Amino acid sequence: MKTIDFLFQRNMPRWIIFFIDLGICLFSLILAYLVRFNFSIPQIEIDAFPLVFGLVLGIRTISFYFSKTYQGIVKYTGSKDAQRIFIVVTIGSISFVLINIISYNFINSKFPIPFSIIIIDYMATAFLMISLRVMFKAMYLELTNPNKEKRSVIIFGAGESGIITKRTLDRDAGTKYKVLGFIDDNIKMQGKKLEGVTIFPLDKLNELLENNNVAHLIISVQNLAPARKQQIVEICLNHDTKVLTVPPVTNWINGELSFKQIKKVQIEELLERDPIQLDKEDIQKQLTNKVILVTGAAGSIGSEIVRQVILFNPKKIILLDQAESPLYEMEMELHDNYSKQSYEVVIGDIRNIERLEKVFNTFHPQIVFHAAAYKHVPMMENNPSESILTNVLGTKNLADLSVAYRVEKFVMVSTDKAVNPTNVMGASKRIAEIYTQALTKKGNTKFITTRFGNVLGSNGSVIPRFRQQLENGGPITITHPDITRFFMTIPEACQLVLEAGVMGKGGEIFIFDMGESVKILDLAKKMIKLSGLVLDKDISITYTGLRPGEKLYEELLADHENTLPTHHKQIMIAKVKEYDFESVSAAINELISLFNKQDNLSIVKKMKQLVPEFKSNNSVYEELD
């Protein structure tokens, strides 16, 4: 046991490794002579041994010493160690060839070391030095953690990324895991072996999970279709197998993958859809060399709009927000990633007309993306005056200045909660929509509205909240067991905003294809499984009741609206009631003037007059309906 402890539990002293390597060189040289002369070495060659052995071992000693081949930890030998040994041995053998050439041409017209000996010695030395290290590593892995104690892993994808994943697993976590098999959709590869591991089709996954204790399935394919990923994850979750994913190659450290970089699949990945095909040529024409103002530029949507717009080389981007710290972080991001682009960071409140006028007068924006808004339903239900000041007055200020300063296009980010609103927040956004639509006819500015549902990972989104509750040990809180929501990723939503902005002629409300609505309870259960926890054992789910103004089901169209298709299958135009600007403007000004009274009932009553379909739900304002 002491010998095993010495050899495997501790790192072998470097001087021992150094002399073992020299011993391998001596053995290889003797073997080369025996093989070359059929195990009967002529006396003339034996007489030359002192010179030959001195040269070979001397050069090997010098090359090993300076290349530090003996400093690697043998039990963790990897491809880099093998590569270094191969290079050092090759250089040494080339030195023998040069010695032969110099001796023949300039000393005594003789070759001190037969070329055949050099070749055989080279192959034997390289092979033995590398293979003995690999053998030692295998013995260490087996003795310190027998194969029967290892947990099985399946890798999805038998391509180059899959091979790298397996080698990474062998190198970094070989003591804990063994690769049971590869799964691949390529029919030509199925049934074959890759580095001794069988490649199976996907329809065998269920059987493999049922018959083996598989700890993880690692998705190594870089661009796997979202539907395919969902299918794989569903199968694994049904067998309590955790799903991991390999990060993009660009995220590998120094171009090399490590096991610690392989992360759990996130719920956001399972809600993704196929990538959006953008009309980049038209977007380029619309945005290149233009001055663009983005409001709410430090928020989830606004910041992503900035990231996407900056790729089209605008003349300048003005980032406007009243949140100091998030805006500073956005400035640092632009400084690090887009230092050559022209941008201006402005702290300002869209409710302050004087501040906005300074921005418009200074920069003269040609396109405005308006993402600034209060958006949390319960907060606005309790503070309707603030929703009016920001969502209505703030939008009105921006819209009026856009007309006054001849902005080409004004693209407003709205919400599905503006459809048949049941809360103050949704109604305030609907009023903002009505005002900008009506204003379209009063100037040359084209006002365009985009509507979509919840975005994954946004501030206040249900998913970050669930994740935090999971980290805190629960419980996960859901307002109602039947509540559903539409979800879209932030990049996807912002790409569609850009596309809608390009195709808009003015006055349209564009709605986005949000896919299928998701039951929040199912979402929570899936997040629990992805975390490796067991519902009602490790963590529980509790129901808190619908919050004021909250809907069970979100809508993208009001009852009396219909849609018209566009050239983009994921964008439609909502046909909505048109309003006269003069009457709308007067009513909205009256609504805004109610802020000074701070009478919530009066404010909401006026909102319901402006938006007749606004019917409060689970709210104190139901008495006004």
Descriptive notes:
47% of the residues lie in helices and 15% in strands. The protein has 22 helices and 22 strands. The protein starts with a helix and ends in a 15-residue tail after the last helix. The chain is elongated and about 115 Å long. It folds into 3 domains: 143 residues, no CATH class; 119 residues, NAD(P)-binding Rossmann-like Domain (Rossmann fold); 280 residues, NAD(P)-binding Rossmann-like Domain (Rossmann fold), CATH 3.40.50. The chain has 625 residues and is α/β, with parallel strands linked by helices. The strands form 5 sheets. It has a 9-stranded mixed β-sheet with strand order 10-9-8-11-12-13-18-22-21, with helices on both faces.
- Spell out the CATH superfamily of the largest domain: NAD(P)-binding Rossmann-like Domain
The DSSP helix count reads 22
Low-pLDDT runs of 5+ residues are: 1-9
State mean pLDDT (0 to 100 scale). Answer: 82
The CATH topology annotation of the largest domain reads as Rossmann fold
* Helical residues, percent: 40-55%
Number of domains: 3
Spatial gap, N to C terminus: 84 Å
Strand order in the largest sheet: 10-9-8-11-12-13-18-22-21
Task: State the major sheet.
Answer: 9 strands, mixed
CATH architecture label of the largest domain:
3-Layer(aba) Sandwich
